[in-house]
Amino acid sequence: MAAAAEAGAGLRLPPHAAAGPVLRTVEMHTGGEPLRILLQPEEEEAAAAAGGALLALRRRMAASRDHVRRALMHEPRGHGGMYGAVVARGEAAAGADLAALFLHGAGYSAMCGHAVLALGRFALDYGLVAAPRRPETAVRLRCPCGPVTAFVPWDGRRSGNPVRFHSVPAFAAATDLAVDVPGRGKVVVDIGYGGTFYAFLDARQLGLDVCSSKTRDLVDAASAVTEAVKKQFKPHHPESEDLSFLYGTILTDGKDAFSEEPTTNICVFADEQVDRSPTGSGVTARIALQYHKGLIQLNQTRTFRSSTTGSLFTGKAVKEARSGDYSAVVVEVSGEAFYTGTATFTVEEEDQLKYGFFFK
Questions:
Q1: Looking at the annotation, which residues are catalytic?
Q2: What region does 2 belong to: left with phi over 0, alpha with psi -120 to 50, or beta?
Q3: How far apart are CA 150 and CA 120, in angstroms?
Q4: What is this structure's pTM?
């Protein structure tokens, strides 16, 4: 077995386009949700430094490097549930330990909690933090939605679990909003912001049970709600129009009042993509809504369960804050992230599907 491992370590690259990208990634998952991490090459970091802020870098990548996202997220290298992050340093990180662009099958996200939990470990194990401290190191990340801090166990040699992070200010954008969903009637939703905007509702309003209904039925219903909300409500972020969009819908079991028992949800985001984890930014937004409604207090920890994998995150509001005119809270989310391997991806010029295809 050791000999086979040594032989594998020395494998040369297969034939590939000389001018095409060679993409080396670290593979992780948090609560079952994958994270494919691409460390930005030094020459691209130099370009990022010349170009300025992270949101500008995201726009440039979408305009001129979107084939990288498609190659890594779409089949045949990825799949319908793949998620990724491009890690940058230098000027794009704006004084943080690293900056991250979040990738999914349909485009780019403003925030991703499961990715932040994984990137906290990655930053320590891959030397992106100059002087990690025992027993826990703060890792400063610059996300498109703003600065986020992860707190990562460190034993002097490697990172550990659980990892936790403190969010950007999270707030209730709308509560008890009546929405007409074509073919499904009227429902009442809450809109919460946790680095990105989500619609929340009890799945029973749609005649479904988040714990026992078929995933396809939950996805169809959540997607219908997302499209209806987009047409009937425009979320507003006080700092940037780049952040003022509805990312998806989270169906819950309706257990919003504080309890020691877990509450279960499923998050359907982007183009009908299903989060395998409880969703870090979703937990953040849901905690903000519960605090706004007086259902929880500061530092009351709630446990959130994914209906797809059964994996668990915890969340709590740790302090009050402001976001423009909104009363907000900083939320702490905790979960476990694990390495699954590394990969090197290449392309051949004559491959008609070299930059991937999207199949639903």
A1: 112
A2: alpha
A3: 6
A4: 0.94
